[in-house]
Structure prediction request, 508 residues.
Amino acid sequence: MRLRAPIAVAFWAALLCDAGSLRAAPQGPTAVAEAIDRLLVEHWRRERITPAAVADDAALFRRLTLDLAGRAPTAREMERFNADPSRDKYAAAVRKLIDGPEFSWYFGTVLDDMIQGTFAGNPAFVTYLRRSLRDGKRWDTVFREVMLGPWDTDERKPAAAFLAGRTKDLDRLTADVTRSFFGVDISCARCHNHPLVKDWKREHYYGMAAFLVRTTGGKGAVSEKADGEARFAGKDGKERVARMMFLSGRTVDEAAGTKKAKVGRREQLVRLALEDGKFLSRAFVNRVWEYLLGRGLVDPVDQIHSANPASVPALLDWLADDFAESGYDIRRLIAGIVQSRAYRLDSRRTDSATLPDAKDFAVARLRPLTPRQFAASLAIALGDGRFEPSAESLQAVEKQTAELVKHLDARTREFQSGSGEALFLSNSEAVRKLVAAGDSNLTGRLAALPDDRVVVKTAFAAILGRSPTAAESERLAAWMGRSGLDRRAACADMVWALVASAEFRFNH
Prediction:
């Protein structure tokens, strides 16, 4: 979109002034947000893109609570936030959520999905991640404990689960370590140099496998053998022993590594990864960015290489360097991103301009709720109205909605609800119990209200976190009066319609 010169100058000047100066080593989340804003403003200006306006308070608070606590806010929380007159109420909400018990409980499952992929869901490993977040453990420490241990206490022993589940398959172990922690998929270089990416050759694949080939285990235990080599056939057809080589190209000689110094091969891998921290920090930053904004700066997140550059290269580089310089501080990174203008943009455009590409992060991306988010939000919104934030209360909600989670669509990219999910929401006994009028649940409380417009307003506040428009209030109140259903059934139908709506199903 092209702007007329006087308007464009004023527009960019305002944004640049608001973004603040870019510092090489900021001290807090606000400085991270300022750096993100500055680099994105420069990108938008180069690409002649006008970003969407910042979303309204209600939308932002709902988005934030879903992303950091794994559930939609309650009506009481939303009412308190909307009524707060202070200018820094959003920043205060960020601090409260990240410092509260729900963040570590919920974000432990987010990290589990990031690290474990198809192996996600191991309760002990999730507990380890939750405890790590609660204790303020940094990402480099988590990486070291997952790869090396020591697995000598009840708290640290579950960290071995990542390796333990993969020790029987060296190819899977090699591919998953490089994908999960370094944002690199080198599996195509197993049989030949990567056909599309010049960065990855067979030496890279087998060099990484050489670090892991001696890893063994079973029944949850992990150890490292004293011998064993990764071998591959060279161009001449002769078998070769792979030299330990990190993704950066740095190699480790056997004499300098495992024999003379008696340093394990995985320990050599961890040492090189932390010395050349770009891979570790860049991969984590990119995955967190994807989780919070719906798309990675590099997309897909496990395809970071020269043929697939970041859409805003300076931003990824800055965030990766800053994350490493901060000591891999997970909370600071997340707090900085959610306070940035990019995260707070509206998902709607009020003008007729062409919608910016997702890679430019100039408009918020609609993101379907994950099964956990949807189930927790459903149970809390339709419950007795007494929910108070705590890890224990959300854990109880998770148990309550376990069946629901299993049947919901887990895809988060290019989402389209399937017929199976629609039928489940329509016919499931678990959903029916949540929606049906009870003595103290939402539907039961609505049925006890005498005024139809108050019913509609209360339902919207509890489920959608907002007040109905005048048209919505009028139409739904009129429907309740002529539906022909008894009051409890009419309230149940309206509640079901709201929780099945796209507005409730998406983070927007």
